[in-house]
Amino acid sequence: MANGAHRRLRSVPGTAQPTADELLQATARGDENALAELYDLLAPAVFGLAKRVVRDPSRAEEITQDVFLSVWRFATRFDPAKGSARTWVLTLTHRRAVDVVRADAAASRREQRVGATQDRPYDTVLEEASNRLQGEQVRECLDTLTELQRESVLLAYYGGYTYPEVSALLDVKLPTVKTRMRDGLIRLRDCLGAWR
């Protein structure tokens, strides 16, 4: 259908309006007026679908514009044997809207990761070095304890066991474990205090 013939169909009263399929096929041949009419015909459905997916009217407007730009660029890919023009355009819309949602979600996750690292009020390298140094200090101070004190402290503070559980694990009476723990913790406190 040539440009002039297409315009005559629209302007002659009593003449059937072109279908979306006819308009899309004319668009594929480069008919800008057919694209404008196709837009008028399908834009409300495209906008409605986009808005349901992205839930933001301004983003839905952007998607609607993108979809009709894609229709103009890729109208030659439309195959009426595989479905209607309306279905083809709404499929493009759904894909584009889902892509926007995914991109927005990915951007949000990136911002959260970057924000989480930038909001830290300390230097992570300094913190790691400090933690390593403290770990070395604790290990050296643990080496100053007796075997029973060291085992008791490690089981209670690093293993998460209660005093009665430590007593059972070491097969030592509970009062003995408590005494060794108290003495061991005093020695650790004194040793670690000497490092400061």
Question: What this model shows, in words?
Answer:
The chain is mainly α and 196 residues long. It folds into two domains: 3-118, Orthogonal Bundle (Rna Polymerase Sigma Factor, Chain: A); 124-195, Arc Repressor Mutant, subunit A (Orthogonal Bundle). The protein is 79% helix and 0% strand. The protein contains nine helices and no strands. The chain has helices at 3-11, 20-28, 32-54, 57-74, 85-118, 124-142, 147-158, 163-170, 174-195. Helix 4 packs across helix 5, helix 6 (124-142) crosses helix 9 (174-195) and helix 7 (147-158) packs across helix 9. The model is unreliable at 1-9 (pLDDT under 50).
Set out the fold topology:
Elements: H1 3-11, H2 20-28, H3 32-54, H4 57-74, H5 85-118, H6 124-142, H7 147-158, H8 163-170, H9 174-195
Helix pairs in contact: 2-3, 3-4, 3-5, 4-5, 6-9, 7-8, 7-9, 8-9
Name a few traits of the molecule.
196 residues, mainly alpha, Rna Polymerase Sigma Factor, Chain: A, Arc Repressor Mutant, subunit A, disordered N terminus
Give a nutshell description of this structure.
This protein is mainly α and 196 residues long. The protein is 79% helix and 0% strand.
CATH architectural grouping of the largest domain: Orthogonal Bundle
In helices, the fraction of residues equals over 70%
Tally of helical segments: 9
Structural class: mainly alpha
Major sheet attributes? none
Strand tally is: 0
Overall mean pLDDT stands at: 82
**What gap, in angstroms, lies between the N and C termini?**
89 Å
* CATH class (first level) name of the largest domain: Mainly Alpha
Corresponding CATH superfamily of the largest domain: RNA polymerase sigma factor, region 2, helix turn helix motif
Task: Specify the overall morphology.
Answer: rod-shaped
Rg: 37 Å
Work out the count of structural domains: 2
Strand content: under 5%
**What series of H and E elements makes up the topology?**
HHHHHHHHH
Task: Give unreliable regions as ranges.
Answer: 1-9
* CATH fold call of the largest domain: Rna Polymerase Sigma Factor, Chain: A
